[in-house]
Amino acid sequence: MDKKYYRVLEIDKILGMLKDKASSSLGVNIIENLNPFSDYNDVKHALQETTEAQSILIKRGHVPIQGIHDIINQAKRAEIGATLDPKSLIMIADTMRTTRILSNILSGDIKVDNFGNGANSNDEGSYDNKYPIVNSLANSLYIHRDIEDAILNAVVSEIEISDNASSELRSIRRRIVQKNQSIRSKLNGIISSATYQKYLQDAIISVRGDRFVVPVKAEYRSMVSGIIHDQSSSGATLFIEPMSIVEMNNDLRQLKLSENEEIERILSELSSMVGEVSRELISNQEILAKIDFIFAKGKLSIAMKGIEPKLNEEKKFKIVKGRHPLLDKKSVVANTVELGYDYSTLLITGPNTGGKTVTIKMIGLFALMTQCGLHIPADYGSSMCVYDNIFADIGDDQSIEQNLSTFSSHMTRIVNILENTTEDSLVIFDELGAGTDPEEGAALAIAILEQIRSVGASCIATTHYSELKKYALAKKDVENAAVEFDMESLSPTYRLLIGVPGKSNAFEISKKLGLSEFTIEEAKKYLTSEDIELEEVLQGVEKNRLKIEEELKIAEQSREEAERLKSELFGKLEKFEKSKAKAMENARSEAFSIIRQAKETTDNLIKELRKIEHERASKEKDRRIDEIKKEISQSMGSLQPSVESMVVPKFSSSEIKNLKPGEDVNIITLRQEGTVISSDDKKKEAVVQVGVMKMTLPYKSLKKISKKEKSTVTKATRKVIKSKSGNIKREVDLRGMNLEEAIYEVEKYLDDATMAGHDEVTIIHGVGTGVLKKGITELLKKNPHVKSMRKGEYGEGGMGVTIVTIK
């Protein structure tokens, strides 16, 4: 691509913003040499890099890239055997540490804590290879934890080596401290001595050239034997090293030389370690630069609220609510624009300062940003393509030196564009044909557009010429667009309207600004009839558009209200379902607790019963059984539902208003028929007899039925039924009987149970050898009263009982 067209689209300003997001000079270097890609796969890969970085930054909030240095020169010097200074070693160690942390964070296998230590991949926070490009780069990094630790353990700062660097260095420094203390102690004895005090200028210890001295008055030079190292500016004071500490100073000097030699040895050893991995460090530099660049793109995307546009290979784009990234985020107007779908050429018209130039710059800038691998500040649904060249003729490059007018400078660029345009190019013109005679300019503009269309390139142009509006209306592959202008406030709205040719609004604006009606009418006379008709058509179109927009706005508000109500309804429904599920869970939990408690109580009572069986006293046995029955009844009483809760239906369509004794009724929830014995219409209650039972029931649990036919059952039969129904239990115990006795007892019991109206009974036969159970089962299969039978379940007696359903 030709870089001379970048400046007018202001991609350099975007790249400047991108450089501000880089964390190192390595990333900045890549940005400075960044050029838009022309290959589809390269653009797709670059966009994916940005998307991965954006996603990681959103999830983590921060990726620690700071601490990367350009250490290529230091690595190469170490490789050829040079000794590096402490500053260079610290730069290398910092870079190694950042490399290790980035590798751990971004590799997809490990996450790290705040200290850069590794953690298991199963821990929360690992990326599980969701970011293949970034993961691949991170996995390619070389880690040198041993060298990093060795440098940081030895080098404290740019000018200081740690005592921990070696045991020899620690020993030398300890001896230096001891020698210093000895020298000071000796000198303190001299300066505090009464003999020497009158010879000294001050009772202090000084250092000259790494040797300890005392300040002696010049006139007493001969009184203090020693070596003169310095004198004051006035010459009144001499700094003398007393002979008594000369040897001690020599020893101290020797120790410091040994210290420097040991430091040099340590630095040489560390430099050698760096030199051994220099190639790996240089490889890391390239990867770290790429990572810094990728995350700079991710940071810029977040700052601009950008999205990855869907990339296509069809030379078309659709920008959904695009916002120019160099304008104020709070005031910028978002516009939707497309090209290449129904038309390949778009002509934008409208008044000056209406936003035409900003719009076409945004389109060109978005194309360049996409092909640089940057996200664009637009809404999801946006789609971009890849152009081989993006040409732009925007602004006035009038040159005094070349003696070029505005028109000439435009035409120079246009000639170059026409010579290099291909079917895969995007061409952008601002005020095409301006700067010369309007008629000739319009004709020339149409010819230029036709040439670009013949090549098959995509084109966007702004213009004021009415001829170009007519041209767009006449050509199938060309579309009009306009920037909206508010005539009430005489200000642009900066909204782009596709499919509508714009008006210059010169007469309306002049009228609002105070130009007389007479002058405006006179001006209209000079317009051709075609121009007047076109303006009238455009005015009508504008009125209809505003009306449709208002109706669409109302429809959109209605739709949003419907969506809101729908959302509220679904929210309430979801809340209800959650409450229902929670209530069911609580009920299950409570029921389980009750059952468990009842089982424990029952188990205890069974143990008590078995204990009673071994007791001899029958009376005591019966008394305990009665007590146990009473305990069971009391424990069950709290769980038993009320009669009203059982017989009153939850939903009742109608309620009986009055009842009379003798009327037949149906108990709705029990599905039983009965006869009214007495009733109370005020209390809405009635005494109803069902078989041998009498119940007081509310009217709302009853339903009137027609008179039943009189039963032909004799008095004697009623007496037998009454007797049976009152005495026959719902179970028979066969334990202790032989098979013959048990068969007789079961046959008799089934007759009585049928007469008593029992629907289900329990036959207790025990487990034992299984003979009794088998014989009784064969009997039940043949008995005419038996509808079905089954084994007892847990809590009913299990294998020791058979549950029989009576016909």
From TrEMBL:
Annotated EC: 3.1.-.-, 3.6.4.-
Domain of life per record: Bacteria
Xref: Gene3D superfamilies: 3.30.1370.110, P-loop containing nucleotide triphosphate hydrolases (3.40.50.300)
Pfam families in UniProt: MSSS (PF20297), MutS_V (PF00488), Smr (PF01713)
Sequence positions that bind ATP: G350, P351, N352, T353, G354, G355, K356, T357
InterPro entries reported for this sequence: DNA_mismatch_repair_MutS_C, DNA_mismatch_repair_MutS_core, DNA_mismatch_repair_MutS_sf, MSSS, MutS, MutS2, P-loop_NTPase, Smr_dom
Keyword NAD in annotation: no
Record-level Gene Ontology MF annotations: ATP binding; ATP hydrolysis activity; ATP-dependent DNA damage sensor activity; endonuclease activity; mismatched DNA binding; ribosomal large subunit binding; rRNA binding
Domain Smr: start-end pairs: 732-807
Keywords assigned by UniProt, alphabetized: ATP-binding, Coiled coil, DNA-binding, Endonuclease, Hydrolase, Nuclease, Nucleotide-binding, RNA-binding, rRNA-binding
Single biological process term from Gene Ontology: negative regulation of DNA recombination
PROSITE patterns cross-referenced by the UniProt entry: DNA_MISMATCH_REPAIR_2, SMR
Residue stretches in coiled coil: 538-631
Keyword Repeat: no
Enzyme class: hydrolase
Purpose of the protein: Acts as a ribosome collision sensor, splitting the ribosome into its 2 subunits. Detects stalled/collided 70S ribosomes which it binds and splits by an ATP-hydrolysis driven conformational change. Acts upstream of the ribosome quality control system (RQC), a ribosome-associated complex that mediates the extraction of incompletely synthesized nascent chains from stalled ribosomes and their subsequent degradation. Probably generates substrates for RQC. Endonuclease that is involved in the suppression of homologous recombination and thus may have a key role in the control of bacterial genetic diversity.
HAMAP family named among the record's database cross-references: MutS2
NCBIfam families, alphabetized: mutS2
Subunit structure: Homodimer. Binds to stalled ribosomes, contacting rRNA.
Sequence similarity: Belongs to the DNA mismatch repair MutS family. MutS2 subfamily.
Protein name: Endonuclease MutS2
Species of origin: Peptostreptococcus porci
Organismal lineage: Bacteria, Bacillati, Bacillota, Clostridia, Peptostreptococcales
